[in-house]
Amino acid sequence: GRVVAPETPLEELLHGVWREVLARDSLGVEANFFAIGGHSLLAMQVTARLAARLGHDVPLRLMFEHPTIRRLASAIEAISTIEPAAAVRRAASG
Question: Are 80 and 56 in contact (CB under 8 A)?
Answer without folding.
Answer: yes
